[in-house]
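Re: the 405-residue chain
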Amino acid sequence: MHKLAGKKILLGITGGIAAYKSALLCRELKRLGADVRVIMTVAATHFITPLTLQALSGHTVHCDLFEAESDHGMGHIELARWADLVIIAPASANTIAKLAHGQADDLLTTTVLACDKPLSLAPAMNSLMWQHLATQANIQLLISRGVTVLGPAEGEQACGEQGPGRMLEAEQIAEHLQQQLNQELLAGKKVVVTAGPTWEAIDPVRGLTNHSSGKMGYELASALRDAGASITLISGPTALSPPAGVDYINITSAKEMTDAVMANVPSCDIFIGVAAVADYRPVSPAQQKIKKDADSLSIELVRNPDILAMVAALDDAPFTVGFAAETEKVVENAQKKLTAKGIHMIAANPVSGKNSAFNADSNELTLIDRDGISHLSRCSKPLLAQKLTKEIAQRYYETYPAKDS
C-alpha cells in the first residue's frame, strides 16, 4: 500500500528558482499515493508554468483568488477545508513574512489563514535573506504557533553564494510529510527528552559547559510530538525556543537535570538522553567572582550523577536511549557506553572536525543496540529526528510488544 494513500495535500508554490523542485515534489507525493492540489503565487508562475503542475497533479492549478472562487466552488475556503496538510515549497522570505503577520493578499496566504490543518514550510532563498534578523524573527514566530519548518539545507545557491537557504530535496520533504501524517506511531506514549548542555558554576560568572546547541534534542522532541507522543523536554541553557505542544522544563546544572529527570521518568514509556551533560562539577563553587591574582588556579572537581545509568537501573525502567558524542573511535566507545550504562539503545555521532554535530544544522548517527549496528546517513537535523523517531518506536515495540496498542 502506498505510504500516503488517500492523503490530501495542498502544495503551495511561491516565487523562486527552487520552484522547479516543486514539480519533483508533486510527482513524489503522487507516487506515494497522495491526492495533490496546487496553489501558485503570481511570482511562482514566472519560474514554472501552471500547466506543468496541472499535468503532474492531475488537477487544475489555482493562481488567482477570484478565479479560484469561481472554479468548481474550490475557493480559498473549499481548498482549506479539503486539505489534510499544507506544504509551501518553496517558501519565499516574502511569503514567510506575510504568514507571520497574518497578511492575506493572494490566494495562497488567504487559504493558509482560513486553514486549521498542519502547515509546513520549506524555505528557499539567498543565504543572507535567510539569516536576516527579520526572517529569523518571522520563522521563530511561526514555529511558536506550531508551524513546521523543513530546512533549509546548506550548499551552493543559484546566486553563486554558499550557505543555508537551499530548499530540501523532494524526497526529504515527502518523508517529513509522511511522518506528520502518521500521528499514530507513538500515540498515547509519554516520552522524556533531555537536550542542550549543562552549566556547572565555578563562580557567579564562570562555569564549565560544552558546545551543544540543543538543536538535535529539540528537533527530536518535535518529531516525537508529531508521532503522537506526549513530550516532556528537559533542557539546559540554549538559544532555542521550546517546540510548541511540549511540556518544557528549563534547568542549568547537571544536578538540576538529574532531579527533573527522576521526577518525570516514573510516568514515562521512553527516556531519551540527548543532552550533553557535564561529567564533572566544581566541589565548592566560589561565592564571589574569582580574581585574576595568581598565575595558576586549581579547581577540584567531583563526578556528576550518571543520569542514563540511574534511569536504566530503575525497577520499572522505561525504554532508555542514550547519545554518545565522540571525537574518536565512535562506534567502539558508544558500544562500551551502551553496556556500562545498561541502556536499550545508543545513538553515536562524531563531534570533531568538519563532521561535528555541535552547532551544526545537519548530523549523522550510528545506532547501536543489543542486536547490532545500523547507520542514519547525514541529513538535516529535522529529517534525522524523524528517522530516529521511527527507529526508536520500532525498537520500543520489539522490546515491549504488549505495549503496542
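The radius of gyration is 23 Å.
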